[in-house]
Amino acid sequence: MKKINVITIDGPSASGKGALARGIANSMGFNILDSGVLYRLYAYLSNMNKSSDEIATQIQKHAVFKKSKEKLSVIYKNNDVSSELRSEIIAKSASDHSSKKEVRDALFNIQRSFYNGNGLVADGRDMGTVVFKDAKLKIFLTASPKERAKRRYIELQNLGQEVNMPALIADIEKRDIKDSSRELSPLLPAEDAHIIDSSDMTLDEVFSFTENLIKKEFI
Ligand code: DC
C-alpha cells in the first residue's frame, strides 16, 4: 500500500488527541482534521429531518473549520458553533449517531477530502483503521478514565459549563464501552499503531515522544 503524508491520532474521549494534533499541525505546518467535531456537527444538525447524505451535503456546503494556534473553530452558516459542539448533550448524541453505518458512510468522503496531498494530522477513533489506513504514522493515545475526566472537567469549566466529576467519570466510562464495543469502526488501535498511555505524562512529554516517531517516518 502506498503510504500518504498523514499522521493519525486515535483514542478515547479526552485522551489529549486534539491538543497533540494541534501541536503537530503547528510544528509540521500540516492541515488538521478533528473527525469528532464532524460527528458532533452531524449530531447538532440531526434534527433537520434530512437523510444522512443530505446532512453531510449541508456540512460540505456551509461548514468552515478554522485553525488558529490555540484552537479549532467550527463556523456553520456564519455562526461560531464551537462551544455548543463541546457540550455533553452533543457528545452523547454524536456517540449515538456514530454507531450508524449511514452516518459513517456519509462522513467518510468529507474526512478523506481533508487530505489534499499536503501533510495532514487527523484525530478520531478510526482514522488509522478505516479512513486513513494508508497513513505513514499511526498513534493510539489513551489515558485512564479518571485522568481523562479530570482533563474534560477543566475544559468544560473553562467553557463556563456546569460539571459534576463523578457523573463525568461515569459518562466517559459508558461512552468508552459504547465506542469500543460497537460493530462498526470500533475504537481499537490499528495493527501498525504506536500506543501511548498518557495517564502519567504531560502534554510536552507526549509531544516529544511523538516528535521522535515523526522524525523516523517523515524526516
Ligand atoms: O472525539 P469526540 O469526543 O469529539 O467525538 C465525539 C463522538 O464521535 C464520540 O462519541 C465518538 C464519535 N467519533 C467516531 O465514532 N469516530 C471518529 N472518527 C470520531 C468521533
Can you offer a commentary on this structure?
This protein is of the alpha/beta class and 219 residues long. It has one domain (4-197): 3-Layer(aba) Sandwich (Rossmann fold). The protein contains 10 helices and 8 strands. The strands form 2 sheets. Strands 2-6-1-7-8 form a 5-stranded parallel β-sheet. It has a 3-stranded antiparallel β-sheet with strand order 3-4-5. Strand 4 (72-76) and strand 5 form a beta hairpin. The mean pLDDT is 93. The chain binds 2'-deoxycytidine-5'-monophosphate (DC).
In short:
The chain is an alpha/beta fold and 219 residues long.
Can you tell me the CATH class?
Alpha Beta
Distinct small-molecule ligands in the complex = 2'-deoxycytidine-5'-monophosphate
- The average pLDDT score comes to 93
Neighbour order of strands in the largest sheet = 2-6-1-7-8
Low-confidence stretches: none
The appropriate CATH architecture is 3-Layer(aba) Sandwich
Q: Tell how many strands the DSSP assignment holds.
A: 8
Q: If helices are DSSP runs of H or I spanning 4 or more residues, what is the number of helices?
A: 10
CATH topology: Rossmann fold
Proportion of residues in extended strands? 15-25%
Q: What is the 3D shape?
A: globular
Class derived from helix and strand content: alpha/beta
Residues in helices, as a percent range: 40-55%
User: How many domains in all?
Assistant: 1
Order of helices and strands: EHEHHEEEHHHEHEHHEH
Largest sheet: 5 strands, parallel
Give Rg in angstroms.
16 Å
What is the distance, rounded to the nearest whole angstrom, between the alpha carbons of the first and last residues?
20 Å
What's the CATH superfamily, by name?
P-loop containing nucleotide triphosphate hydrolases
